[in-house]
Amino acid sequence: MNAVLATYVLLAQTIAPFIDAQTVAVGHLDLTRVDVAAAEARFASLAGIAPGQADPMAENWDAAAAWLAEARRAGIKELFVVVSLADMPREPVRLVVPLKKGADAQDIKKIRALLFSGRADGPVEATPLDRPGWRPKRMTAVAHNAVVFASAEFIERLPAMTPHPRPHLAEAFAAAGDSTAQLLLLPTADHRRVAEEMMPVMPDQFGGGPGSTWTRGVQWAAIGIDGPPKPQLGATIQSADAAAAKALHEAIQRAYAALGTFRPVQDVLPDFDKTAPALTPTVEGDRLTLKLAPPAADALLDQCVGSILHQARRNTLALDRLKHIGVSLHMYRSSHKQNWPPDLDVLVAEKFAAERWLNSPVTGRRYVYIRPPRNAKDTTIVAFTDPADGNLTTVDVLFADGHVQLLAVDKYLLESIKKARALSEKAYGPPTQPATPAGER
After folding, report:
1. What is the 3-state secondary structure (H, E, C) of 356-395?
2. How far apart are CA 119 and CA 73, in angstroms?
3. Nearest to residue 27, comparing CAs of 186, 159, 149, 239?
4. Are 160 and 6 in contact (CB under 8 A)?
5. How far is 284 from 273, CA to CA, in rounded Å?
6. How far is CA 202 from the centre of its chain?
7. Which pLDDT tens digit goes with each residue over 257-268?
8. Of the candidates 360, 353, 349, 309, which has an alpha carbon nearest to the alpha carbon of residue 330?
9. Tens of pLDDT along 71-97?
10. What are phi and psi of 76, to 5 degrees?
11. Is 91 exposed, middle or buried (0-12, 13-18, 19+ CB in 10 A)?
């Protein structure tokens, strides 16, 4: 056995004891190759965040860098992730950190704390509650020369668990290649059978056709990823045979063509039809492969991830601004005997809010405000981005209790807006300038 293959066999042997019959995916991350600073800079560039600019989407990078530094000091070089349907829907993810040779009790305690609480000096387990039958949702344990962080149910099953054999595990790791992160999709024959029974025909949004094309086409899949400063991506899909690989290739092309006409995809990726060819794998015998080196990977980041991040950032900023408006409304009501202001401009006039908060970053126009009655329910809509301002499919919404949500523009939302307006008119009379119903402009 050559040294390269031995590396992938070792990866497979390390994680194998934690794989049960319901495991569908396994991931591996080489922490020694993660460059948080480069990732943060690339993220900011893609999201349109200026250097040094405070932004809600960029708040967690310092915490990630601090966690990584502590993890390296504690001797953590790699991290495995196991996803299993056995603990769905609450806690399907398990984290596994192999212990280095000679790790002592102090090292193990730091690793358990980092996985459980995010700090090397933090707690390693939840504080028991004084009630019968209580147990924590997630726990850490030491097993098979590794620290595992998973659901309490899995930790309890682990000592008696018989690992489920995955004969292609090392082969899949090898297909993912020498990369910072590897992600393996490992459906079993039972998983494929259930998938075919649940979806004998694929939805039109995914190109239609028999579901068996996908279950036969994907025996297992492996993705290898390198992050900034030199992003790369490689993918391999192992099919049942050459005919299944060819059929899957055709199904992927149909799916991309269908997705390109799907409104939610168009909203997020307006140039998806130009991006799809770069994401289409080639057929090589009974496999499909895809390779994106740094120039192509950078272009993909700009086309796909950049568009997604720009929209996500606009939505995050919109929700953040609505939170500011909610706080300002609360402050106003505290100073006005719990009465709601007649309009949002009053918040600026009385210095409860800044003018810039009142405009949605999604549309650049003023949030719609519906003055609630004094005793409005918590779920009454107070302010929102008008979907008619940009023919939007999702909008940010502020409720009377101060919480905000990003909601789909559907019959339920439009009915809720109509109800809020009716309650407002009942309490205060018709508005001086009748509002245009959302979605009807």
Report:
1. HHHECCCCCCECEECCCCCCCCCCCEEEECCHHHCCCCEE
2. 12
3. 186
4. no
5. 24
6. 24
7. 998 888 777 777
8. 353
9. 999 999 999 999 999 988 888 999 999
10. -80, 115
11. middle
